[in-house]
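Lecture 7, part 2: worked example. A protein chain together with tetradecanoyl-COA.
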Amino acid sequence: MPTVTEVYDDASAYDDRDVNDSESGEDDGPAAGPSDPSIATPSSKKKKKKRSKVSKVLNTLKGKEVPQVMVDKVMEKVNEEHGDQPLMDEESIRRLLEQLKVNDVLQGKAGLGGKNKKDMGDHKFWSTQPVQQFDDAPAEQDGPLEPSRPREEVRQEPYPLPKDFEWSTIDLDNPAQIKELYELLSANYVEDDQASFRFQYSAEFLEWALKPPGYHKECNVGVRVSSNKKLVAFISGVPITLRVRENRVEAVEVNYLCIRKKLRSKRLAPVLIKELTRQCHLKGIFQAIYTGGIVIPTPVSTCRYFHRTLNVPKLVDVKFTFVPRNMTLARMIRLYKVPSTPHLARSGLREMEDRDVEAVAALYSRYMERFDLVPLMSVDEVLHQFMSGRGVGEISTVTGRRDRQNSETHKITDFFSFYSLPSTVINHPRHNLLEAAYLFYYASDVAFEDGTDDRGLLKHRVQELIADAIIIADQAKFDVFNALTLMDNMSFLSDLKFGQGDGLLNFYLYNWRTKPLAGINAVEDRPIGRGVGVVML
Ligand SMILES: CCCCCCCCCCCCCC(=O)SCCNC(=O)CCNC(=O)[C@H](O)C(C)(C)COP(=O)(O)OP(=O)(O)OC[C@H]1O[C@@H](n2cnc3c(N)ncnc32)[C@H](O)[C@@H]1OP(=O)(O)O
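Predicted complex, written out as structure tokens:
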């Protein structure tokens, strides 16, 4: 990983251009689709007619999947008779179709991106689990779906595996075993719908993610082929203390469920999940949090991925994004150009250090009160989450202002953090790796001043912080900066030129009932995005 230190040091090279400024003139529409679909026609009557035509075409498509061929067909239909002045561009149409899909999913009608094509009621495994089912009434009261049990009432022997396979606890203190896990995930973990990109967690990153304070080694559950001991499946759970609305919940964060491609669709996943659940029960843990692109019973919230383009030529080359019709590559490069030095370098932005950890922990705890689903972190956990990931691609910064009483000391007022998670570019002649940065946690004490939301002060501050995160990521040669519609992210995504992605991430709670939390939809008193305050690695 390139280091970022020189970025902070080079404050003299401070570039005063606002990261929001489009240098390419007013006609430079957003390239990767941050804007709402627009219909640019002069007369309102004409507009109405055209809109109804658009909705007619779109309505016929409700509930279906959105392959490229369909986008092309709709584009052709919507734009026919409009010659040089198309009503809607490709990206807008795709997004509208995606939106229809989202609505269907939320209504339980359809799966996403072909990931679960079966009927939503037909979940042989999940219908037996203590999770909210699709047709359950919204939870009146928060709490567990089934009671915790004493250790002696928990099944003592492992679940049976198909013959030829055996259980294997992955020892994270053994570099050879971490390497085996890395190899399993590199070849078999999460891919996008088109199988163009696959997450590539490094071995060091996995070690960091799977060894937080108090982790249980038995919760790294592997499956091997008995004859040759090859690792073919894995699931993990690390301890996490959650606040779900007003309840404190001791849980595990489940991640890295993976089965070798050749062994898919053999109902091995439910066995892995049950075995991990058993291990957790033996430790006295009866709740879990997990995320996934798949829709199963029942998301407590759904967030969308947004992407801030950095390396335009590469992203176009690998087809992560495309040059829209009304744009050239050169204009797109100008549009996404970022300054060379963080703006806050002047006000003390620097890498986080051990001495900051207590202040960051306090700032984090107070800031996270803004959301309904958050990890509660001890000082040790803050140390682990924001400092121990350093060598493996995590970048954490703090900024602050001088203490009024003592001009020598700084008071930490803000922090932000992001991490590196590259993806393998599958079958590309020139590029092997997409270097992606993912926004992690951040906080600002501006949130604690009265009326800051009304005056837009917090929005402004968070925007400054994330603009700097983008600059640092750009300097560190990341190709793209990703964020989800959670925490306060909605307040900067569009201004900082994030484009809406195809991917949705569903959040799930195991054995905990609560009403849906704000994600892509607002919920009661919470605006869009502001329910979820959990970022999973
Ligand atoms: C108290 C402690 C509790 C701890 C446990 C809490 C729960 C944790 C839950 C796990 C959180 C994981 C968080 C992450 O890591 S999310 C990342 C998931 N991993 C990947 O996407 C990597 C690539 N894919 C694969 O390796 C396989 O396709 C996997 C392993 C995902 C499924 O393998 P396969 O494709 O060969 O399927 P099957 O025939 O064995 O089994 C089919 C059954 O499995 C259900 N299924 C499929 N995918 C998922 C999924 N992502 N979450 C939950 N359930 C899933 C599916 O609905 C069906 O059940 P039902 O619909 O018929 O009922």
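Residues 44-114 form one domain. The first helix runs from residue 5 to 9. Keep this in mind for problem set question 3.
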